[in-house]
Each structure stands twice: as C-alpha cells, then as structure tokens.
Amino acid sequence: MSKQILVVDDDLHIREVISFALEKAGMSVRQAGDGREAVQSFREQAADLLVLDINMPEMDGLEVCRELRKTSNVPILFLSSRDDEIDRILGLEIGGDDYVTKPFSPRELVARINAILKRTQPVSAEPSPPSDHLIRGKLMVSPQQHLATWDQQAVHLTATEFGMLILLARHPNRVFNRDHIMQQAYDNQVYVSDRTIDSHIRHIRQKFVEVGCVNIIDTVHGVGYKLAPC
C-alpha cells in the first residue's frame, strides 16, 4: 500500500507543488490549509507522515506538533520560511524528525520523506523472537517492534531518534562520528547539519532522563557519540 502523507500549509500553491511531487513518487496525499484542520484531519484518519509548515495563522506548526505528540509518534517533517535555525531546532526538540527551509527543491523534499519512512519500522503481528532484542543492561531495543525501553519503561522515540539509538545499541563500544550517524539516520543523498544531529541526540537523552536513565549517550569530545554504560 502507498504511504499516506498529510501536507499542511496555508499556501495552496505550496501544497499543490508538494502533493504533485509526492503523488509522482507513488504516495497518497491529503491536504490541510491550517493547523486546526490538520489536527482534525489526523484524528479522523491517521497518516504515515506529516509535512508541516511552521508559520501558519490560527495554530502554527509547532502547536500542531505538540498536540499530536500527546497521542502519536507519527513522523513530522517541518517546513519553514525563516532562515533561523532556532525555529528548526525547536521543532526537532518538540518531536519533529526533519526540516526543510523554503524555498526548497521538491526532489530533496521527497528524498527526505523517503529517508524518514525507511526508518519507520512496522510493528510485527507476531511476537518478536528474543534474537530481535538488543539488550544492554537496563536498555532494551527491538528494531522489529520499533520499541525502546529502559528498566521495562517504554521510551517514545521518533523514527529518526530510534534509528540513531539502534546504531549505538548494536555497537555499544564504538564511537560514531556525526557523518556516520547521519548516514544511518538519513538517506545518503540528504544532508543535514551537525547541529541537527546534536539536537536529536539531546532529545534522546532527555526522553531517557524522564524514565530514570541519567545518561544514555556519552559524548566523546572531538570525535562523536557512543552508547553510555547501561
């Protein structure tokens, strides 16, 4: 089945450009012209991913993200017309998976969406075999179930965050630089800044702190990141 994408922007022309590119790539598209319409549309029918403009009247993209994150981990790609990384990082910190700045290339947008969707693992209908579980002390990661727990408490990660954690959990004694982490979390044709990777790492750490893990990822200064002793 084709992936269902909800495109949210108050500019009809931008919605149409994005929709055309996504449909050409074999995806199904729904549109919403503002934040409130987007929330209502998602509640009526879930989507596999949201393309969400930050700057909208009534209810902006950040508010929409906060509202949806109360009940869903649906991947979110932000659009922003502001050349200001503070907005982008804030979007990632509240639960976004990626961002694209306007004006953008429809081809790049499709590539980023495909990269996010590749990282979204469907939940298996059958119980996962023990070999699927990566167990590191109190940390358990199940790639097949898209599930991470700390001391048996679920940690709700976005698709991007989950992909990064899997990489570190599979190689607990190895230090990964940002380029390697980027290749794991993003399509090779997609470039993201070091600050974006750092923001995702910071967000993963915060989510584990909330379930009692003081530090899940160590920073090796001048090199990169590794899984902390669990």
TrEMBL record:
Swiss-Prot/TrEMBL keywords: DNA-binding, Phosphoprotein, Transcription, Transcription regulation, Two-component regulatory system
Domain OmpR/PhoB-type: 131-229
Domain Response regulatory span(s) in chain numbering: 4-117
GO cellular component, one term: cytosol
InterPro entries, sorted: CheY-like_superfamily (IPR011006), OmpR/PhoB-type_DNA-bd (IPR001867), Sig_transdc_resp-reg_C-effctor (IPR016032), Sig_transdc_resp-reg_receiver (IPR001789), WalR-like (IPR039420), WH-like_DNA-bd_sf (IPR036388)
Entry-annotated residues carrying 4-aspartylphosphate: 53
GO terms of biological process kind: regulation of DNA-templated transcription
MF (Gene Ontology): phosphorelay response regulator activity; transcription cis-regulatory region binding
Keyword hit for Phosphoprotein: yes
Keyword Coiled coil on entry: no
Protein name: Two-component system, OmpR family, response regulator
DNA-binding region: 131-229
